[in-house]
From TrEMBL:
InterPro entries: H3K4_H4K5_MeTrfase, SET_dom, SET_dom_sf, Znf_MYND. One of its GO terms (molecular function) is zinc ion binding. This is MYND-type domain-containing protein. Residues 56-93 form the MYND-type domain. Pfam families: SET, zf-MYND. SMART domains: SET.
């Protein structure tokens, strides 16, 4: 980690550890809105290919694709992307080519990520791919896995996936437990690589970017320029303060954000927004973001999802509506709004507005 500290210093950054969050990235100087704080190429990445959609392994483009003629799994848009990936794919290709057709179908993007992780480690150990302060397997080893917090069902799934990876890699000393733990690391550290319109293209592991902790009121944002992950300040970050990004959709209610963070990242957020849970301002904000209007007997309150998800409760009169009821109203509204958007008739639009009103509920967030 000393090597990483040394390479972060000229960028105006430093590492620290907090008892409640683990490793954290701190600003060692002031950063200003729009400024790049840190950027990193992926340690590894794969496109989110499926049976119905394929992308180039190098640039994630969907055009001019040709399948690798040896392994029949990986696609490239041209020779420059193929060359870029060749050192790693040469090894991967030999392994994938040995699989029968049925087995190849089970090589999902997540399985490929893990296979590539071990192959990259092998190539870095053999100095075929250079090891640098920002690009080395030690950072993967240092990632949090939360192995002791995940449930049995998830552990079993990771063990099954680890078995498949082991079968593909054919390495005699590979440890199923270690591979399963690495799947758990992927779950709370890997990033979805998106295009400029936030459409998901692939998944990447950026072990230095992964040091950045979450806040529901973040001072920085993670964006992608191709495969390059770039963290930019969205507000003034004074020297010595922690750099934070949001792991989840910030335009969601506190209950929804906390649920997602707990399920995927296994922690309870205690940021300034989450600390206001249940307070008047938090209820108002959640109502705007996800609430449905109650309007029962003229009530002007908002229905919000209960934390146990049994139903929706009006924050003013206490009325409970079950999920199915809300879902039905939401689908009626969607049908009406689809009809409205295809109608150019002002009278019909007026009738539709009254129908919306009769449904007495706002469908946002259902
Ligand atoms: C991508 S890692 C961030 C770096 C991590 N702190 C470390 O030591 O490697 C995500 C994990 O960090 C911790 N974490 C991130 N943000 C947190 C927060 N706001 N509060 C508590 N724990 C947090 C959780 O354990 C989470 O699963």
């Amino acid at each position: 980690m000393e090597e990483l500290q040394a390479s972060l210093q000229p960028r105006g950054l430093t590492l620290s550890t907090f008892h409640d969050k683990g490793r954290s990235l701190l600003a060692a100087r002031d950063f200003y809105p729009g400024e790049v704080i840190i950027s990193q190429e992926p340690y590894l990445c794969v496109p989110n290919n499926s049976l119905t959609e394929s992308r180039c392994d190098g640039c994630f483009s969907k055009s001019n694709l040709k399948k690798c003629s040896a392994c029949h799994v990986v696609w490239y848009c041209g020779s420059s992307c193929q060359k870029l990936e060749w050192k790693l794919h040469r090894l991967e290709c030999q392994l994938l080519a040995k699989l029968d057709k049925e087995r190849r179908k089970s090589v999902t993007p997540t399985i490929r990520m893990m296979v590539k992780l071990y192959l990259r480690r092998k190539l870095q150990n053999g100095n075929v791919i250079p090891v640098t302060a920002m690009d080395n397997y030690n950072f993967v080893e240092a990632l949090v896995s939360h192995m002791s917090d995940i449930d049995e069902k998830q552990l079993l799934l990771y063990a099954q996936m680890a078995n498949l990876v082991n079968l593909i890699l054919q390495l005699p000393n590979n440890d199923i437990k270690e591979i399963a733990e690495n799947f758990s690391k992927f779950a709370c550290n890997a990033h979805t690589i998106c295009d400029s319109e936030l459409r998901p293209l692939g998944t990447g592991l950026y072990p230095v970017i992964s040091i950045i902790n979450h806040s529901c009121l973040p001072n920085a944002v993670l964006i992608f320029e191709g495969r390059l992950a770039v963290v930019r300040a969205v507000q003034h970050i004074p020297k010595d303060s922690e750099v934070s990004i949001s792991y989840v959709e910030t335009a969601a209610s506190t209950i929804t954000r906390q649920k997602t963070l707990k399920e995927q990242y296994l922690f309870t957020c205690t940021c300034v927004r989450c600390n206001k849970l249940g307070q008047y301002g938090d209820i108002q904000e959640s109502a705007i973001l996800e609430g449905c209007r109650c309007r029962d007997n003229g009530c002007s309150g908002f229905l919000l999802r209960e934390s146990d998800e049994k139903g929706f409760v009006c924050q003013q009169c206490g009325l409970i509506r079950n999920k199915e009821e809300i879902r039905k109203i939401a689908s009626d509204i969607k049908a009406l709004s689809d009809k409205a958007s295809s109608s150019g008739n002002i009278n019909a639009a007026g009738r539709m507005e009254r129908s919306f009103d009769n449904l007495q509920i706002d469908d946002s967030g259902v």
